[in-house]
Design a protein that fits this description.
about 80 residues, mainly alpha, elongated
């Protein structure tokens, strides 16, 4: 953290995955963890698709947004639909 904070005063941005030059130590760690996690997830999806014709991937939060470019490179442009 750029300065000491009470646990009750921590915001989402304090631990956001920023990797820029002005990022805090915690943000830089979060950025590295996100890169490692995203790479591992995409590699796991790729391995599963090599073994199975259908693979279900359930995402939460913004994970699809961060991994979508890698998935499009691997699988092509996806199509979105809504279940009724």
């Amino acid at each position: 953290m750029p300065y000491p904070k009470s646990v009750l005063d921590i915001s989402n941005d304090d631990a956001a995955p920023h990797g820029g030059s002005n990022a805090t130590y915690v943000q830089k760690i979060s950025n590295k963890v996100c890169l490692i996690r995203d790479r591992a997830i995409v590699q796991t999806i790729e391995r599963m698709l090599a073994s199975y014709s259908r693979v279900l991937v359930v995402y939460g939060g913004s994970h699809l947004i961060t991994q979508e470019p890698a998935l499009e490179s691997l699988l092509g442009k996806g199509s979105y639909f809504q279940l009724d």
